[in-house]
Amino acid sequence: MRFWRRFLTILAAALLLALTAGCGGKNTGSMHQPATKPAPKETLKGKVVIFHAGSLTVPLDKMAKEFERLHPGVKIEREASGSRTAARKVTDLHRPCDIVAAADYTVIDDLLYPTYTDHNVLFARNELVIMYTPQSKYAGEINSKNWYKILLRPGVNYGRSDENADPCGYRTLMCWQLAAKYYRDPGLYEKLNRGCPPRNIRPKEVDLISLLETKTLDYVFIYRSVAEQHKLPYVTLPPELNLSDIRYASFYKEAAVRVKGKKPGEMVTYSGKPIVYGVALLKNAPNREAATAFLKFMIDRNQGLRILKECGQPVFDPPLYKGTLPPELKEAALKPAA
Question: β-pairing, 74-81 with 99-102?
Fold first, then answer.
């Protein structure tokens, strides 16, 4: 309990600093600084394999291109999936990987630490929104107050990601549970859950975008950064429901979702908390030198963090960390989470 009190205190301070610094949205202006030139004697080479959350696809693509320009001998290979699926590629399938980046830092805590990594770097935030297209049913009518009434109208189709594969999936279920409390409608969670059949559920949240574009779905629950990156309209949710505001952390805890655990047949309970992303360098990273260099790039305020902000995603500056950082990362400007 002492750890979590200390961690939440530091997290609250970091969120407040980020908000007062104007890091809550896009930043394409004065924050941009020239990338550091590569060292005269380039030693980095080979491929770096990253398993990552689908919501990081766009910013990681931009980071990879910039890093490869600085280090021509390195190829960044990225594989997007739900964050829990990304971790299980390491734990269950034993696939070679250098870095895992998750949309929920607790995925790294629960599935990878301490066997596969000895640290967890908390680097970004997000919020839950409802994305749609101009062709969605009642697109001109839906707003932050009536969204649940619109979704429950006959003929409206909405979707989410799989809670066992993707944090956005269990966060959506948490949002619905909190909505039942917030709107004082005890049956609302069951109504929303029944209204989203298995055919409307996908392994990761970005898989839902094509269903919107083909008009298979009218609305999807997704992260705000993804909606902004794809330039699609979205409905913001009250801070009590969007899992972004540290001030409502105690209320978020009132929501809980059961998901598959580490072992076959095991189920674990995830409780609601503010959305925080985590990234870790694996102990057995095949290309440790280049992977460490990329991770440093990723969490540098003038490089990876800048790109994240330009892609509409709030960051922690400086990032926080849990566990024991490897010697190669200790020179990075990180702040302990506890």
Answer: unpaired
User: Is a pLDDT exceeding 80 seen at residue 40?
Assistant: no
Is residue 269 assigned to a domain? no
Quick one: DSSP state of residue 55?
Answer: G
**Sign of torsion, CA 69 18 278 252?**
negative
Cβ contact 139:233 at 8 Å: yes
Residues 67 and 190 in one domain: no
Nearest Cα to 89, choosing from 76, 104, 105, 101? 101
The total domain count for the chain is 2
Separation of alpha carbons 145 and 244, rounded Å: 18
Asked if residue 308 belongs to a domain, the reply is: yes
Which phi-psi region, left, alpha or beta, contains residue 14 (left: φ > 0; alpha: ψ -120 to 50)?
Answer: alpha
Scan for tokens 């993804």, then name that residue: 226
pTM, to two decimals: 0.88
pLDDT at position 284 is 97
Q: At what angle do helices 57-70 and 288-298 cross, to 10 degrees?
A: 120
Q: Is residue 266 assigned to a domain?
A: no
CATH of the domain at 10: 3.40.190.10
Residue 115 shares a structural domain with residue 162 = no
Q: Which domain holds residue 233?
A: 128-260
Q: Is 332 part of any domain?
A: yes
User: Look-up: residue for tokens 């696939």?
Assistant: 95
Q: Give 19 or 57, the one with higher predicted confidence.
A: 57
Nearest to 53 by CA among 202, 207, 172, 166: 166
